[in-house]
Amino acid sequence: MQIKLISTSDVHGYLAPTDYSSRDHVAPFGLSRAATLIQQLTQTDDDTVWPIVIDNGDFVQGSPLTYFIARQHQEAAPLYSRLANRNHVQAGIFGNHEFNYGLDFLDLCESARHYPMLAANIEDQQQRTLFAKPYTILERAGVKVAILGLTTQFVGRWELPAHLDGLKFHDVVETAKHFVPKLRELADVVVVAYHGGLERDPQTNQPTERLNGENRGSALLNEVPGIDAMITGHQHRRLAVKVQGIPVTQPGMKGQNVGMITLDLNAMHQVTTTKAETFSVKDAAPDATTMQLIHTVNTQMEDWLDTPLGTINGSMLVQDHLDARLHNHPYINFINQVEMAATGTDIAATALFNDDVPGLKQHVTMREVMNSYVYPNKLAVETITGADLKRALERCASYFLLQDGHVIVNPEFLNPKLRHYIYDIYSGIDYTFDLTQPIGHRVVQLDYHGQPVQPAQALTVTLNHYRAGGGGNYPMYQTAKIQHQLPTDMTVLIADYFAKHPVVTATQPTNFKVHY
């Protein structure tokens, strides 16, 4: 028997082959292309070859289309599970972004599924059927394959509490230690599908990120015996490796790749050889059935994206992303302006999330807003101390390094995953970084209303809810310090701002300086 574990992960709602930057854009990724490749990988006339398709999470959030469905056309939400059925998915895993629009919406998204959702480390006090199965056991020709589903335990730190009603996320390693021995008795092959990634280098076992628990794939493989194969995700990496001799895949994001682990079994149903691979979808034609399923709502969404919102006097286009992060930018200043207007605070922070953020054209549409502000963030107002703020700024200052007199991005923010979204720029304070100083000692000026900020001084700041919960390794920000949260997504707040201010002037801020 040969088992082929075929996986998608972190599709993030990129269903059609487009990044939505324009109505006619064609991209070399998307679930529709992945669907064609999955069909090719699963087609076989050989009864001894058993393809098993798994979706590893972060499926229903992340693109303008997912936002449009969640906020404008929830009746279309079962589309996601119908698409998974089209790909013959036999097990689904919850990603952290599955919870961004609440549990009722998530239940609607999965309402047409023909497959189980697996949630071994998610405890549901309300005992909903959606989270009832920790694993599934599939059988063919006498061979049994167990699939254990795990979700990064950090969801509770990031997500709005109202979206996690009755849910508790347990440590994935301890959960696996509980289930894997039982599954070894029940099945011939044990597979872990984990919406999380590898926190250590597969070859050297050296940490590649802070060992804070967000990603624990390496720990699972090092500490839990009995795993035959592991599918990972969350980090948006393209991986096909072996760790401790165990095959591991991770297929990137946006449907860029499809992962496949091949397991060869002997007559005793024992795994004898393994292989891990990923396949790019760029040369696969979009699957016609998938495109037909999404056609109506996709067309409606494209019309919505072209809705005019307002006009920019000046330029908010981002031409050089490193320069914008180093010297601030009118677009960043505008986002902070929207945040402060929405909450009434006079300090706010935002990130230039990635190097694809274009900023805003002169005539702003919803398309530009969605392409520039790519996350469904909500805002939180948090009261912190001056010492907290200084520590947060030191974390920001660590984003930069000096190399031969030139400013570069600290590799910590680039590998093993691009994390530009961790670096924030603030409005409402005056501050200066000196990059010639050691990391942790780079904030050489920090003023509020023209006066130096004192360590014990109370300050109120607006942040997105991810950062307000400490996301991105900002422990000085905590849920317990949040004064209140806004229920409205930032993209809606931006649209609302234009409704009140149809003409916005682009202003280059001067409150932030960097010495190097």
TrEMBL record:
This is Bifunctional metallophosphatase/5'-nucleotidase. Belongs to the 5'-nucleotidase family. Keywords: Hydrolase, Nucleotide-binding, Signal. It holds the Pfam family Metallophos. Residues 323-478 form the 5'-Nucleotidase C-terminal domain. Residues 5-237 form the Calcineurin-like phosphoesterase domain. The keyword ATP-binding does not apply.
